Amino acid sequence: MFIGGNHEASNYLQELPYGGWVAPKIYYMGYAGVVNFGGLRIGGLSGIFKGQDYHKGHFECPPYNESTKRSVYHVRNLEVFRLKQLRQSLDIFMSHDWPRGIYEYGSVAELLRRKRFLADEVSTGTLGSPAAEELLYALKPDYWFAAHLHVKFPALVEFELNNGKTKSTKFLALDKCLPGRQFLQILEMNPRENETKDLRLDAEWLSILRSTNHLLSVSRTNSYMPGIGSNERFDFTVTKDELDEICSDFGGNLRLPDNFVQTATPHNTVPGKSADVCEKTAVHVNAQTALLCEMVGLSNPVALLLNRSGNTSGILPADNSDFVDSTFTSSSSFNPEEISLDDCENDDEVPDKEDDPPCPGVRRSASGFSNPGENLLGKPDETVMSGEDCESFSPQVKRQSLDPQTSLGETGNCVKAQETETEIISPPG
Description:
This protein is of the alpha/beta class. The protein is built from ten helices and 17 strands. Strand 1 and strand 2 form a beta hairpin. It is globular and about 55 Å long. The protein starts with 9 loop residues before the first helix and ends with a strand.
């Protein structure tokens, strides 16, 4: 199971905006999604944050130009708004980029020792995604997993709730998959009793998708989600009747069917033949998405794009100004924080130019940052952590005395409605 980042086959993932099988036994969670496995509730948000595209619709369509090949994987406000409607608790949440400010709940010194070029963003409070920060405070999942910055970083956020109780989120980001890097960690999570180990759709999430379907946009113009003071509904908290309706529509069975179907032939470069003979990049209406849209009553963004173009072939020409505006190539869509799409070709041979050189004799353990002389992989039980072990995620914990209420304004910046005090406490042990 995975969420998308900024190094994906975006033209393929666009076929599955609400999630689906990209291959047998490999499930993509869509632009955003919630599923269940063994009673564990798992949520996710694909893409990375870019303020200038945050309020736009999903207007991009292959063939991409230099602008849209990047904007296609930028997070949109619709998915964040939908995730904020969740009221049932999440066991796990996944994102590609980090929630903004998460470094405050771990070892900033160790992070900057490994990634010195992040110092300016840390000092200005701009490192990470404000949209993910908003979701962290709203959802408070038990675990939050991320990547993007090519460094392992654990943190522990403890919230003090309005009822006086506390709730913690264990955050873990991992490095990229290269020899000698900390890209893998195994955590044991026990499924709920009497729950089958299969992947299931989530009734609350499906209800939210249904009730917010009218907010979907495939326009390049900005659109804003409803809020307090607006003339339309802005609270889409799911009712029992809505949950019952979803369950009834699915006959009480939300198990995901194994309905993967290949939609395009693989691209194979034929020696001696020009790239011009390759099949044109096409937009496919995936049968999995079509079925879910029919069951729940959703609009398929890809189908909307094709219908508006009046093109039923699935191939949108590059000069179609409505969808792939070849003149829309201003440098404003270039994000200096993004990693070049070509920088991973020979990463196993060429070290990251921004990374610190490795320290001789220092290895990284699965449960902490540095243990001189310890084997990188360690024994099997050193790479397995239960929930009880995860206090070792962070050398310090920051406790939020209040739940901050945050919202992303028109500029894409996170505006805190209420300042909170923070208390530093020592973790157990």
